[in-house]
Amino acid sequence: MKLSKGIYVLVGVLCLAVGFVSARIIESFKPKPVNVFEKTALETQGLEVKKMRDSMQVIFPLTVDGDLYFAGERVPLEDPEVKERLDRELQVNAYWQSNTLLSMKLANRYFDEIEKILIEEGVPTDFKYLALIESGFRDVVSPSGAAGFWQFMPATGKQYGLEINSEIDERFHVEKSTRAACKYLKDAKSQLGNWTLAAASYNYGVNGIFNRLSDQHSQDYYELFLTSETSRYVFRILAMKIIFANPDRAGFYIDPKELYQPFQYKTVTVDTTVGDMANFAKQFDLKYKHIKVLNTWLRTASLPNKSKKVYEIKILQ
Q: What is the DSSP string of the chain?
């Protein structure tokens, strides 16, 4: 039977409509890309940040004015010495573009997970910036032996419940090391009195900060005369908080598509020995590197597990 031209047109329109609806349905099932700056933009609302103007010939400093808080505790920017210490870290991090840019991309992958744990543990979310300045969200090991996102030394990591040996090093386990860091910070706050001092102690130690408070008859981080590293430490955190809340004014224009997205994974419970991690990966149609990227706490190519301990291994989806 010969169809009229109008019928062909109608069929064509219906096919296009069905295709459009199908595409929209498929799109609705895709996870929404994470954009870290949608949240961090709200973190320094009381602070005016002046936009940097930059060219090949002239460089302008990033400047701030107004109220700034760390973990709900006010930073006394009316003190010229305090403002100068913040100014130093702002310029260093705003103009160390390669490092800060990569930290921004990686933070987009890890901030949500870490912030969720901080909230569950009752620790202010500003402490996500402490992990950022410690490691840049890279699995680094310092010359002194500190490791992972939170840069735990072996003894301190074990003190706060992390398994650390030649096969397993949970300093590289994002969730477990974050919870261990929360325990440390809550202990430090309990002993020192506030979150700012607790943050400083992460660099200098609780006893070190306690002794400086006693020696200098003070209870305020911003009043203390400290080593150069500890004197700069909290201000490095503050500088990254300001830059993340105002990336464009700090000179960073990042297309959200360029941000590293969180890994999509499921977990598999293991309570036996895994003799060959490459063969283990094959069971899930994955390569060895797919297991190692998500589970850097597994330090060897196998999991002896003689004690039959229960582990959760992340499997890339």
A: -PPPHHHHHHHHHHHHHHHHHHHHHHHHHSPPPP-THHHHTTTTTTEEEEPP-B-SS-B---EEEE--EETTEE--TTSHHHHHHHHHHHHHHHH-HHHHHHHHHHHHHHHHHHHHHHHHHT--GGGHHHHHHHHTTS--B-TTS-BTTTTB-HHHHHHTT--BSSSBBGGG-HHHHHHHHHHHHHHHHHHHSSHHHHHHHHHH-HHHHHHHHHHTT-S-GGG----HHHHHHHHHHHHHHHHHHSTTTTT----GGGSPPPPPEEEEEE-S-BS-HHHHHHTTT--HHHHHHH-TTB-SSSB--TT---EEEEEE-
